[in-house]
Recover the amino acids of this structure.
């Protein structure tokens, strides 16, 4: 069997084992996730991702390892938008903190399947029609401009969500939550709970966010294995990141501008070979991965540090 096939099998085996331990052992009972617990799990997921990055370095060399790290950082930073949506949904449906982890666990498990399918489809399209990369680049430039100049909050209207509307027509919905259960049998018929509607909306909104993030990772590398594994590693750490940052989300004043710069830069990176090819001939010039990684890291650090400084100044001014 080809080495790459074993790598796919091994990666998924590790993911499923860790997820099984997460839900079946460490979070078997619903409980409120404290900031300390969220911080520990965030450190665990980041450490596992970096350890896998080290394996890629040993197996495939520094180029693929840098591509993985760049893709991981981009996806991890873009997931902040998901966190904001989670906050809105849980507040709207009044989901108690002790039940939120269960929703995010199954929501992210579904996201793994959806994103995996989208990545495989994108890789197949790029292999057949390489000009799609230039469309991705233009799309990322437009997305970056939208983030930069439009500070509107993500629009989340549970009443108009297509998936929730279809679910209401197919299965009865209980008027209130039934603990951490998605389905209950009452009066002899199976009914869904509002918690199931929250899960559906989480899945649908993640699908929308993936439309931005997946082209961004294809702008770093075209290797399906690197694109997929970096995306999945970032998504796996999203739950703990939510519980760690949800209460502090409003403090990241400049993170939106940082994400806009990163998306725009990757869009430029994807279009550079086309534009330089017109002037230089041949395939054009490619921006090195080391430069891409440096831009991503510096942009994130500057936007976070600037946000912290502004938050402290605002706190001082209100005292």
């Amino acid at each position: 069997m080809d080495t790459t096939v074993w790598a796919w099998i091994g990666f998924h085996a590790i993911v499923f084992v860790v997820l099984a331990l997460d839900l079946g052992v460490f979070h078997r009972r619903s409980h409120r996730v404290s900031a300390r617990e969220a911080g520990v799990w965030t450190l665990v997921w980041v450490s596992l991702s970096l350890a896998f990055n080290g394996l890629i370095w040993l197996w495939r060399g520094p180029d693929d390892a840098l591509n993985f790290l760049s893709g991981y950082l981009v996806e991890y930073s873009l997931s902040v938008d998901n966190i904001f949506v989670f906050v809105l949904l849980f507040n709207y449906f009044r989901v108690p903190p002790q039940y939120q982890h269960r929703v995010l666990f199954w929501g992210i498990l579904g996201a793994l399947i959806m994103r995996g399918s989208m990545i495989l489809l994108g890789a197949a399209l790029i292999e057949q029609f390489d000009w799609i990369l230039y469309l991705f680049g233009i799309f990322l430039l437009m997305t970056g401009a939208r983030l930069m100049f439009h500070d509107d909050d993500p629009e989340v209207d549970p009443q108009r969500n297509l998936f929730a509307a279809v679910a209401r027509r197919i299965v009865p919905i209980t008027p209130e939550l039934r603990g951490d259960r998605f389905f209950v049998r009452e009066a002899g018929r199976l009914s869904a709970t509002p918690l199931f509607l929250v899960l559906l909306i989480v899945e649908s909104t993640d699908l929308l966010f993936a439309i931005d993030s997946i082209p961004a990772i294809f702008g770093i590398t075209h290797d399906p294995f690197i694109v997929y594994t970096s995306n999945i590693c970032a998504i796996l750490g999203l739950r703990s990141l939510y519980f760690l940052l949800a209460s502090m989300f409003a403090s990241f004043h400049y993170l939106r501008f940082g994400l806009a710069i990163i998306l725009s830069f990757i869009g430029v990176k994807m279009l550079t070979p086309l534009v330089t090819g017109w002037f230089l001939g041949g395939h054009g010039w490619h921006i090195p991965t080391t430069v891409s990684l440096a831009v991503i890291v510096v942009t994130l650090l500057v936007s976070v540090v600037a946000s912290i400084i502004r938050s402290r100044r605002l706190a001082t001014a209100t005292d």
Q: What stands out?
A: Residues 3-318 form one domain. Strands lie at 183-186, 189-192.
